[in-house]
Amino acid sequence: MQHLQDRRPQRIADRPDLLGGGELDGVFELVVRDLGVVRHGLIRLTSQIVRDIWIIHRSKEPAMAEVVLFHHSQGLTEGVRAFADALRAAGHVVHLPDLFEGKTFETLDDGMAYVREVGFGAMAEHGIAAADALGAGSGNGLVYAGMSLGVVPAQQLAQTRAGARAALFLHACLPFSEYGEAWPAGVPVQVHAMDEDPFFIEEGGDLDAAKALVESTSEAELFLYPGKEHLFSDASIPAYDEAATTLLTSRVIEFLKGL
Questions:
Q1: What's the distance, Cα to Cα, between the start and end of the chain in Å?
Q2: Cα–chain-centroid distance for residue 234?
Q3: Residue 144 DSSP SS3
Q4: Structure confidence by residue, pLDDT tens digits, 154-181
Q5: Chain-centre distance of CA 91, in angstroms?
């Protein structure tokens, strides 16, 4: 052993003779001074060579999700921003592409009129281009999320971009057959809507598509909330339902946490 007069702290990598083969597994750093210890962790071992040895483990940071959230047909409202902020507060990264280039609308009808003027296809392409600008051209481990209108680009990206991490569809769901023969394996998805939302439950519409999605894969979940409002998760418009949104948000955060 090195003479005790050398009082410099030593890393275990500098003194491989301190421990035998295989004993370095899981060790981050060992610092020894004289016969004492200048740093320590939670696990204490003893050695005939050094009186006290402390093994320091790297702390594991929770894996956070990176989400691309597409807004609904009233635009990138303060309520959409607030929902994104709730996910950020839970530690996730959230991108908010603005498909309307700064325009917002007071009513759903006004927003839909604008979408029809621009074209649904063009709006979807705008969303895909926005995701590509974030480096999402190959999936890139992103979670694709959409609110109502925003589900269109979110679902297309989730089903056609290899490497998508997950998908979240709020207030809408398209038939998965729009973008492929089956929902992609390894991509968990949640659908959230109100059980009496006339836009969601119309025959042959979003509810049927959501049920078919759930039946087609064990990685899909459908959550229905009591009520008739379409955009109930937007706190900045009259359709907002605080109780339903609180539950929805908690479910989404738990979903993202488990990815």
A1: 48
A2: 19
A3: strand
A4: 999 999 998 899 999 999 999 999 999 9
A5: 10
